[in-house]
């Protein structure tokens, strides 16, 4: 617990308040989570406004409310200019996140965040550091895991988890940092020991409006570094090269083949069995072997090793031939009695291009059958682009459903189909389970069944509700009842 005025001062935010000084037991941004002694912070969201629930918060026993405007309600009411910023700064002050006893690494970029954080988690686990992970696949620490609704949770929840990591004697924490999280100030006030920039390709332009705003949002992470922190940047990406040239902090470049990069491959071979390469680094040569096909995964491994050798130079596991394991839902291969199913999260034109290109280059493969859709209430212009990419690499295409949210699934499918010229290789099946079944039934030994868009997700988001659905389980059930 902490006194309200002490908490406000520790948060270092401008505010207007001159009232009582109650004890604060917790922070909440959802009025339904308010308990006696909670400080409720009213945040305006996309679908609702926390200011409309201030009375409810007091009814539930709120010790105080932080808001952007006056309202007729009980006291204490603390006025701030920006309640999102206040939520972050107050949460991190309440949970004591300004001086963490473990290194905090943030990874941002359109693609690769999940894989890189998981690779770092594997390295830290092998080093006995009791690591923690926060990202698309949930929150993991000390053999415990929690599902998360967002790639990067809300600031109060981040603060809660960081505090839990500390209590569990965490030795390193790795966080996926989305552009939404940066723009919506969820990480405001945190200081990172290292940050990674993977790449920037078309995505989320419904939110950021254009690529320049998208880039500015991503690059803002690098203003939240500690003085001695490392910036790990992919200079194969044009936006990465630009960011690298603008950095004032210690910047470390990585690349697949650019020999000017601090970390780069001397050579690398990709096969259906995975990756084998020789990585040149500032600490010498590292031999890389991983059962993770795809050149983009070689790039992700380079990023993870670049972070590791700079942030953890001592007490590392043997990095040569380190047994990196595939990440769930990322180019995850399931060998069936028919073809080989490949489950991947790719849901942007660039991510699809990388995954399908990597699959097309695998030795011994025959046809490629691709099942995918596109999310609703998001960037509409990428839909025909995804159709074009699918057509470029696929022999057969089934367009299906993928988190339509509040849009009509068939409208999304038709928008994707506009990008496909050879209509005879394409069909539409909105029922995703049925679409996967059709693709499975038509596949033969040697075929690749590419199931894209959802990866390890266990739900389909339709009309505001999440309904159970798991691509991997669908394949397993089909195989069991073949």
Description of the structure:
The chain is of the alpha/beta class and 482 residues long. It has 15 helices and 25 strands. It has helices spanning 4-11, 54-59, 83-94, 113-126, 155-167, 179-183, 205-208, 211-219, 238-246, 295-311, 349-360, 382-393, 409-417, 432-442, 471-480, and strands at 2-3, 23-24, 26-28, 38-41, 64-67, 77-79, 104-108, 132-135, 138-141, 144-146, 173-176, 192-197, 225-234, 250-254, 264-271, 274-281, 284-290, 332-335, 340-344, 368-372, 396-399, 426-428, 448-452, 459-462, 465-468. The strands form six sheets. It has an eight-stranded mixed sheet, with helices on both faces. The chain has a six-stranded mixed sheet with strand order 18-19-23-20-21-22, with helices on both faces. Strands 3-4-5-6 form a four-stranded parallel sheet. Strand 15 (264-271) and strand 16 form a beta hairpin. The termini are far apart. The mean pLDDT is 94.
List keywords for this structure.
482 residues; alpha/beta; Udp-n-acetylmuramoylalanyl-d-glutamate--2,6- Diaminopimelate Ligase, Chain: A, domain 1; UDP-N-acetylmuramoyl-L-alanine:D-glutamate ligase; Protein-Tyrosine Phosphatase, Chain A; 3 domains; 8-stranded mixed beta sheet; 6-stranded mixed beta sheet; globular
Structural class call reads alpha/beta
Top-tier CATH class of the largest domain: Alpha Beta
Estimated share of beta-strand residues:
15-25%
**What oligomeric state best describes the polypeptide chains here?**
single chain
* Total E-strand runs: 25
Low-confidence sequence ranges: none
Radius of gyration: 24 Å
Instruction: Characterize the main sheet.
Output: 8 strands, mixed
**CATH architecture call of the largest domain:** 3-Layer(aba) Sandwich
The largest beta-sheet arranges its strands as 10-9-8-11-7-12-13-14
Number of helices: 15
**Mean pLDDT score, rounded?**
94
**Count of discrete domains:** 3
Residues in helices, as a percent range: 25-40%
Distance between the termini: 58 Å
CATH topology name of the largest domain: UDP-N-acetylmuramoyl-L-alanine:D-glutamate ligase
């Amino acid at each position: 617990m902490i006194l309200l005025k002490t908490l406000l001062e520790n948060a270092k935010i401008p505010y207007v308040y001159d009232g009582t000084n109650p004890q604060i037991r917790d922070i909440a941004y959802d009025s339904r989570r308010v308990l006696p002694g909670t400080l409720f912070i009213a945040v305006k969201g996309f679908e609702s406004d926390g200011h409309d629930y201030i009375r409810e918060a007091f009814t539930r026993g709120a010790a105080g409310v932080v808001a952007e405007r006056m309202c007729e309600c009980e006291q204490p009411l603390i006025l701030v200019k920006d309640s999102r910023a206040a939520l972050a700064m107050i949460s991190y002050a309440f949970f004591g996140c300004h001086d963490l006893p473990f290194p905090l690494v943030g990874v941002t970029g359109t693609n690769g965040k999940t894989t890189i954080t998981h690779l770092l988690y594997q390295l830290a686990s092998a080093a006995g550091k009791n690591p923690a992970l926060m990202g698309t696949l949930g929150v993991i620490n000390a053999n415990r895991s929690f599902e998360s609704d967002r790639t990067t949770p809300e600031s109060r929840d981040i603060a809660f988890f960081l505090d839990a990591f500390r209590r569990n004697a965490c030795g390193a924490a790795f966080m996926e940092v989305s552009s939404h999280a940066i723009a919506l100030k969820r990480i405001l006030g945190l200081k990172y020991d290292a940050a990674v920039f993977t790449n920037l390709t078309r995505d989320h332009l419904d939110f950021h409006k254009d690529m320049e705003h998208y880039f500015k949002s991503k690059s803002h992470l690098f203003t939240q570094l500690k003085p001695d922190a490392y910036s790990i940047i992919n200079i194969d990406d044009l936006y990465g090269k630009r960011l690298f040239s603008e950095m004032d902090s210690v910047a470390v470049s990585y690349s697949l083949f650019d020999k000017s990069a601090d970390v780069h491959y001397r050579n690398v071979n990709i096969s259906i069995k995975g990756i084998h390469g020789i990585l040149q680094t500032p600490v010498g040569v590292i031999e890389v072997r991983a059962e993770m096909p795809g050149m983009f995964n070689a790039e992700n491994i380079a990023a993870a090793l670049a972070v590791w050798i700079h942030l953890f130079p001592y007490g590392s596991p043997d990095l040569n031939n380190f047994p990196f394991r595939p990440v769930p839902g990322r180019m995850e291969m399931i060998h069936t009695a028919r073809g080989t199913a490949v489950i991947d999260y790719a849901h942007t034109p660039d991510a699809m291009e990388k995954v399908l290109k990597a699959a097309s280059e695998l030795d011994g493969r025959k046809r490629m059958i691709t099942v995918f859709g596109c999310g609703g209430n998001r960037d509409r212009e990428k839909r025909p682009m995804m159709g074009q990419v699918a057509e470029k690499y696929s022999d057969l295409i089934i367009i299906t459903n993928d988190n339509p949210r509040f849009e009509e699934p068939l409208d999304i499918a038709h928008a994707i189909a506009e990008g496909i010229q050879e209509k005879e290789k394409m069909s539409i099946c909105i029922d995703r389970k049925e679409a996967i079944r059709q693709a499975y039934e038509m596949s033969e030994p040697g075929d690749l069944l590419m199931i894209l868009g959802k990866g390890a997700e266990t739900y389909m988001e339709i009309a505001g509700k999440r309904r159970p659905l798991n691509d991997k389980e669908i394949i397993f059930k089909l195989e069991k009842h073949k």
